[in-house]
Amino acid sequence: MEINIFKIAVFLLLILVYLTVRKLFKRFTDFTENIGNSVYNEEELKRLKTKIVQLEQQINNEP
C-alpha cells in the first residue's frame, strides 16, 4: 500500500517539476524575444530615417 502512495506522490512531483520548468522556459523565451524585437526595431527605425532623408533630398533637388 505504501508503494502505491509513494508512486502517486512521485508522479505528482514530476508533474509539478514539468510545469515549473515549462513556465520558466516560456518566461525565458518571452524575454529573449523582447530583446530581439527591440534591437530589430531600432535598426529598422535607423534604416527608415536614412531612407526618409534620402527621399527628402531627392524631392528638394528636383525642380
From TrEMBL:
State which residue ranges cross the membrane: 6-25
Q: Which UniProt keywords apply?
A: Membrane, Transmembrane, Transmembrane helix
Which protein are we looking at?
Answer: Uncharacterized protein
Read off the lineage from the record: Bacteria, Pseudomonadati, Bacteroidota, Flavobacteriia, Flavobacteriales
